[in-house]
Amino acid sequence: MYRVIHQNGLPVSQDLSRSSAIKARLPAGEIVEVVEVEARLDQGRRRGRIASPAGWISLHQHGGACRLDFVEQVVSTEDSVARSHPKLGTSSPGASDSRCSSVSALDGAVI
Questions:
Q1: How many alpha carbons fall within 13 Å on the CB side of residue 42?
Q2: CA distances from 72 to 20, 89, 92 (A)
Q3: Alpha carbon of 36 to those of 47, 59, 68, 86: distances in Å?
Q4: Any bridge partners for residue 11, and if so which?
Q5: Taking 80 as the threshold, does the pLDDT of residue 64 lie above it?
Q6: What is the Cα–Cα distance from 16 to 19, expressed in whole angstroms?
Q7: Residue 4 in contact with residue 30, Cβ under 8 Å?
Q8: What's the predicted TM-score (pTM) here?
Q9: What would the mean pLDDT of 72-94 be, rounded to a whole number?
Q10: What integer pLDDT is reported at residue 98 of this predicted model?
Q11: What confidence score (pLDDT) does residue 76 get?
Q12: pLDDT in tens, 96-110
């Protein structure tokens, strides 16, 4: 499960392409289930398919040595076993979007 941390929320696209029709908009703080991560970047962004509302969101944007995260991994209190993949981001809701973080080893993984 992942929390939207981008202060303006995230659009949910119908298809993998960022230019496809927008189906919905997720507000900051919304929790979503990412069921697939696309290996290829779309306009510099790593895209993930979410379960509900069904569609695609930007997980983070690559810019050389910097990465801007739009979501962060959350672990429910009922889930005592950590997932086997690293976090997509480490900031909290409302945090500055201008920070840089290292590129995740998650790139291309199906979660």
A1: 16
A2: 24, 5, 8
A3: 9, 11, 19, 15
A4: 25
A5: no
A6: 9
A7: yes
A8: 0.67
A9: 50
A10: 41
A11: 62
A12: 344 444 334 344 433
What's the mean per-residue pLDDT of the chain? 76
Q: Which residue has the tokens 């809701």?
A: 93
Identify whether the C-beta of residue 39 lies closer than 8 Å to the C-beta of residue 23. no
Residue 94: pLDDT over 70: no
The angle subtended at Cα 86 by Cα 82 and Cα 87, nearest 5°, is: 95
DSSP structure class, residue 60: E
| 22-47-64-85 Cα dihedral, nearest 10 degrees | 150
Cβ contact 85:20 at 8 Å: no
Type of residue found at 35:
V
Q: Using DSSP bridges, classify how beta strands 71-73 and 2-4 pair: parallel, antiparallel or unpaired.
A: antiparallel
Extract the tokens encoding 43: 């306009």
